[in-house]
Amino acid sequence: MEDGESAPPVADEREGEEDDFGYRLFPDRSKKTQSFLMRSFFTFHNRCQLMLRRTLETNPYAQLLLEAMKQSGCTVFNDRHFSCENCDGCVSGGFDSATSQIVLCQNNIRQQSHMNRVVTHELIHAFDHCRAHVDWFKNVKHLACSEIRAANLSGDCTLMNEISRFKFGLKGHHQTCVRDRAIRSILAVRKVSKETAEKAVDEVFDACFNDLEPFGRIPHSKTDAKRAYKDFQNRDRYNANL
After folding, report:
1. How distant, in Å, are the alpha carbons of 51, 121, 138, 191, 224 from that of 144?
2. Looking at the chain, which terminus has fewer C-beta neighbours within 10 angstroms, N or C?
3. Contact, 210 vs 218, CB < 8 A?
4. Residue 2 bears catalytic tag
5. Are residues 49 and 124 in the same domain?
6. In the predicted structure, residue 56 carries a pLDDT above the cut 90
7. Please, are residues 56 and 79 in contact by the beta-carbon 8 Å criterion?
8. Averaged over 117-126, what is the pLDDT?
9. What is the pTM of this model?
10. CB–CB of 162/169 below 8 Å?
């Protein structure tokens, strides 16, 4: 989750209370779908749709993930698997595993660069959901692993993003950022203690931090992402010729 932003809606585990699976952060999930004509009048929705289209058409992070999803047998359709909605003020996006939809918070995403990061972050969750049997709702380690990967590979922790948050560090700062953001994401969607979240992240950190699929490297910039996309395409062509 970025700045209280992106994570799969997961189970609220408060004892004695009914689980809400994190949907409290995404109130539009429980509302009836509005007609297209009605939704088209809302500026937020139109802006969200335009930024989403630009991300999917031009952003190398998103393009690689979309291709990887397709190769894994989980083709992403723009009109089916993305939904621009109003959300709680603390989030900018989420992956709804129940519907295999990426929720984009149209009231909180205002810049194209922000949209790029949110879409990439959530597509990593979708990719993990496609390729692995992720138990989002009961296994906090599974959630921790996907959050580590999303923070590591989406650009959440690039130097420029960290500077914009007034966070500076030397050696190991990227790993620290990834760990901190994974913990924050878990705490935003699961009613667990900080100690539980930290333990889950620490127990799977090394394995999940070093799982770089489908990028094959940590893409610290769009240039890195473009190279990773090219390498992925070449790898796919090589495998097809075996």
Report:
1. 28, 14, 12, 14, 25
2. C
3. no
4. no
5. yes
6. yes
7. no
8. 96
9. 0.80
10. yes
